[in-house]
Amino acid sequence: MRSLLIAAAAALVLSDAAMAQDADHPGDKTMVVGSDFGVAPWMVRGASGPEGFGVDMIKDIAKRIGRPGVEIADINFSGLFAALFSKRIEFTVNPLNITAERAERMLYTEPFFATGNGFLIRTADQMKGFEDLKGKQLAVNRGTISDTWATANAEKYGFEVQRYDTFPDSVQAVITRRAFTALNEIPTTIFAASQNKAIKVGFKDFNGRNFGYAFRLEDTAYRNTVEEAIECMKLDGTLARMYEKWYGSAPDQTSTINAVFVGYGPPGFKGYEFKPHVPGCK
User: Fold this and answer.
1) In what order do the strands lie in the sheet with 113-122?
2) How far is C-alpha 164 from the chain's CA centre?
3) Residue 120 forms beta bridges with which residues?
4) Residue 264 in 3-state DSSP?
5) 10 Å Cβ neighbour count for 226?
6) For the residues of 129-180, what is the DSSP string, one character each?
7) Assign residue 225 a region: left if phi > 0, alpha if psi is -120 to 50, beta otherwise?
8) How many CB atoms lie within 10 A of CB 245?
9) Cis amide prior to 41 (ω within 30 degrees)
10) What are the φ/ψ torsions at residue 64 (nearest 5 degrees)?
11) Predicted TM-score (pTM) of this structure
12) What are the backbone dihedrals phi and psi of residue 211, each rounded to the nearest 5 degrees, phi first?
């Protein structure tokens, strides 16, 4: 009898949690998520709405978890977390780096996209390493991990930081010679250079960073549901095909775009749950 009562109480708690979660993201409603639209080819504003790798990915996830559609709010990166915490969006879908500091305030999915620092420069210029930044101007998208890196390393390498609200603005600063380089994620800079002959990727700093979606801390069950959909996309090759479509080459086989992690969330970071499971792929 005592075991039955405990089980019943646990079921009631789970039921209450599910009801509370449905209030924020009901399954019969359009999914509302947020991203900065200025990062190609992840997400840009096309002729008929947002398009890119990130758009294809979240639309596929919505279908897999039974949501009728997706609305992607275009929010500058500097305002994205405020939108998340105020419940204007359900979770973030921009190329967001997983960091220990951010994991204290939000709940990440497992990693699904490996990245690092990419330095865009003018085609005629050269950059072999960090030492070439001395005495130069470095442009970043305000509030991003690139901004964080630049702030932490400006004195060490002797460069000055210029901050812009969007990535295209930082690229324009390089083209117009206001800055020597624009710093962003490696895949983003590779794509930008492929679209404009005036710029190239001068230096790539692969440093083990990864992207993940970010949820509010109380949305553990919802995070897990979305993560299982991501795991299914890894297992059936959907994510790899999307990467090749938008970035022009197949991802490395060791990339986290192909790796399914044990449990939920990013291993080694707060919010990770060691819960071995088999995702319910359809």
Assistant:
1) 160-164, 137-141, 181-185, 113-122, 199-211
2) 19
3) 182, 201
4) strand
5) 25
6) SGGGGTT-EEEEETTSHHHHHHHHHHHHHT-EEEEESSHHHHHHHHHTTS-S
7) alpha
8) 12
9) yes
10) -65, -30
11) 0.76
12) -90, 150
Q: What's 206-258 look like in SS3? A: EEEEEECCEECCCCHHHHHHHHHHHHHHHHCCHHHHHHHHHHCCCCCCCCCCC
**Which whole-number Å values give the CA distances from 2 to 13, 19, 74, 86, 128, in the listed order?**
17, 26, 52, 41, 69
Task: Note the pLDDT tens digit of each residue in 62-100.
Answer: 999 999 999 999 999 889 999 999 999 999 999 999 999
Distance separating alpha carbons of residues 49 and 99, to the nearest angstrom: 30
- What does the alpha-carbon distance between residue 101 and residue 111 come to, in Å, rounded to a whole number? 16
Using the structure block, give the residue that is written with the tokens 């299982």: 228
- 């109480």: which residue's tokens? 9
Q: How far apart are CA 88 and CA 81, in angstroms?
A: 10
Residue 103 DSSP code: H
Alpha carbon separation from 4 to 7, 11, 14, 18 (Å, rounded)? 5, 10, 15, 21
Count of helices and strands (H, E) across the chain = 9, 11
**Residues ≥6 apart with Cβ < 8 Å to 177:** 122
CA separation for the pair 45, 231 (Å, rounded): 27
> How far apart, in whole angstroms, are the C-alpha atoms of residue 177 and residue 137?
9
Q: What is the pLDDT of residues 257-282, one digit of tens each?
A: 999 999 999 999 999 999 999 998 97
